[in-house]
Amino acid sequence: MGHLMQFNTWVEFIDMGGHGLYVWLSFAIAVGVISVNVVQPWLNQKKLIGSLQRKFQREGSLK
User: Fold this and answer.
1) 17 in the Ramachandran plot: left (φ > 0), alpha (ψ -120 to 50) or beta?
2) Predicted model pTM
3) 21: left (phi over 0), alpha (psi -120 to 50) or beta
4) 16: Cβ–Cβ under 8 A, 6 or more apart, which residues?
5) Is 27:21 a contact under the CB 8 Å cutoff?
6) CA distance 43 to 29
7) 16-55: per-residue pLDDT in tens?
8) How confident is the model at residue 6 (pLDDT cuts 50, 70, 90)?
9) What are the backbone dihedrals phi and psi of residue 47, each rounded to the nearest 5 degrees, phi first?
10) Residue 61 — very low, low, confident or very high, per pLDDT cuts 50/70/90?
């Protein structure tokens, strides 16, 4: 079986055996990329819906 890594203190956990900078920077980048992939389509959808509403209002007022 694999060895389960254990940390005695929070400082050891954050340091990650000397690899903390790499680990936490990679984690932050991954969370950032995932966040953009979730938020960007939502913002685009809101923008598209607003644009379509304005277009339909303009077309309705022209008749």
Assistant:
1) left
2) 0.64
3) alpha
4) 22, 23, 24
5) no
6) 21
7) 989 999 999 999 999 999 999 999 999 999 999 999 999 9
8) confident
9) -65, -45
10) confident
Residue whose entry in the numeric block shows the structure tokens 């990329």: 33
**Dihedral over Cα of 14, 19, 24, 30: its sign:** negative
Structure tokens at 7: 């940390």
Output the CA–CA distances (angstroms, integers) from residue 58 to 33, 49, 54, 62, in the order listed: 37, 14, 6, 6
H helix intervals, the chain: 10-15, 20-62
pLDDT given at position 1: 52
Distance CA 42, CA 54 (A): 19
The count of other CB atoms within 10 Å of the CB of residue 13 is: 13
